[in-house]
Amino acid sequence: MSKTLVQPIGQKRLTNVSVIRLKKHGMRFEIACYKNKAGSWREGVEKDLDEVLQSHTVYSNVSKGVLAKSKDLVVAFGTDDQEKICLEVCQHHFAFFFPVIVN
Question: Residues in the chain with pLDDT < 50?
Fold first, then answer.
């Protein structure tokens, strides 16, 4: 038995994370965002979605790192394009939970 140190490769640590969830067609989809940037994007200060998202990946469980299946994405969203789905999840979440109030 060798005494070498084995370290995980390809493991991405999600720090300063805010998880945005969307339940659609009975399936839960999650994306990982930066906490402070998500608020800026919601208020319209931040325009670039790349600055808001930690990764352009749709998960079924962010904390465990479980990716959403491609066939589930097609059923729920009609496409498996991760960037379009991330944008839709963000827009739905912020429009539903933080509506813009016009005087």
Answer: 100-103
